[in-house]
Amino acid sequence: MSWKIRAIIWAVLLLGAYLAGFFPQYRKASRLESELDALRVQSRMRQVRESVSLAYWEATRMNYGLAQEHADRAFRTAQEVKDDTGDEATRQLMDRLLSSRDETLRLLKAGDGSALSQLQPMMQSAQKAIAY
């Protein structure tokens, strides 16, 4: 066997060994990346839940300015989650929360106590749907 054929065989074997080690690592990395994406969405959903809860809490204390800030943060985060997720159930949940955005923020800005009637169902559905 000539040295050229041996060199080609060694090159093919080295390439095969490289690929045999590369593909398992690639699969593992892509699985971990998808898990990380799912955890990021869960974290953002928890931020929505906590912001809605804080808005409700502040509204019950008649701190409508702080309640409006928390509600605005919750709505912005909910919109980001809705835009970033591919899960239809999560999108529907965020749509339900976002459906009362304008009215809730208007009531909080006006310092109207009836904002609680908007915030309470939002808080309850967020508490039920978004796990701790």
What does this structure look like?
By secondary structure, the chain is mainly alpha-helical. The chain has a single domain (37-129), classed as Four Helix Bundle (Hemerythrin (Met), subunit A) (Up-down Bundle). It contains 5 helices and no strands. The radius of gyration is 26 Å and the shape is rod-shaped.
Main beta sheet strand tally, sense and closure: none
CATH class: Mainly Alpha
Shape annotation: rod-shaped
Specify the CATH architecture. Up-down Bundle
Tell me the count of domains: 1
Give, in order, the helices and strands. HHHHH
The CATH topology name reads: Four Helix Bundle (Hemerythrin (Met), subunit A)
Pick out the low-confidence regions. Answer: none
Range of strand content: under 5%
Count of alpha and pi helical runs: 5
Concise structural overview:
The chain is mainly α. It is built from five helices and no strands.
Topology:
Layout: H1 3-60, H2 64-84, H3 88-98, H4 101-110, H5 115-129
Helix pairs in contact: 1-2, 1-5, 2-3, 2-4
Q: Which properties best describe this structure?
A:
single chain, 132 residues, mainly alpha, Four Helix Bundle (Hemerythrin (Met), subunit A), 0% strand
